[in-house]
Amino acid sequence: MSKEYIQEVKTATAQRFADQWRFNFRSNREAIKRRPGVQALKNKFSGTPAILVGAGPSLDKNLRYLAQAKERAIFISSDAALKPLLRHGIEPEFVMALDPQEEIAKFLTGIPNNKLRLVAPTIVHPRILDLWEGDVVFYHKFAPDIPVLVQVQKEIPKVGVLTPGGSVLSVAYDLAFQIGSSPIIFVGQDLSYDKKNTYSRAGENEGQTLGGIFVKQSENIVYEKGIHGEILATLKSMSVSKQWFDWAFTTWKRPRPPEIFNCSEAGILTDHCRLMPFREVLLKHCVKKFNPTWILKKALR
Prior knowledge:
By secondary structure, this protein is of the alpha/beta class. It has one domain (3-296). The protein has 10 helices and 11 strands. The strands form 2 sheets. Strands 6-5-4-3-2-1-7-10-11 form a 9-stranded parallel β-sheet. The protein is globular.
């Protein structure tokens, strides 16, 4: 993926959403002032494993094993992976949202969410805040080259920032990095499509076929090498996201660098992280019990 593609994706995103970002932020302003920001979570889970759950097709392989890590790791779920997790008895500590559109409501409705915690951008669609009954933690999208988002951050600076990189799990990774987690474990983070499925069969996007994606997104389809050396179809935006992870994994620094495991067992996230089956990481790294609820209540009171 060339730098031209990266700039193309960035420019298209800014042009598409600038007005929506402004409207959403104005609508959310009072709620943002009342709620905590991600800054309050800094280093609160130092040395604690974090499992970042995406809704890629490979999630189906590991859903049945995830419950074994309850109270042994922090679960950070993408919005699209929330319903599959709940169906398997897993209530994640954090549910991540990134998209400013009302469309993501489909991932968050029809479920009891009053005990869950949504981590949302300050420019999230106000409809999402209306339907969410649980706690909300806000963050600013850090994008110093996008004037609208720079201005939003200046207006309420104490919220804290997460850096987006295309996919929801980019901000999930930043959250895990900032709270001090290690290891950081990816599950269901394919950033590509397999031969049959575009998303986990347990999620809201189950009905989307690969053929349909090719028709609707024909001009955005590119190909990347997968973890097994195979060539996989993906979108320009997800290929850019892969480059974002390569950058974050290699350039972000903190006193105790995290171990990073990609346990998706599929997809294109291959570089600067260790590829390992989830069950193996579970047995080696998710062994010590702790009480995340108590830590969160203390941090966010």
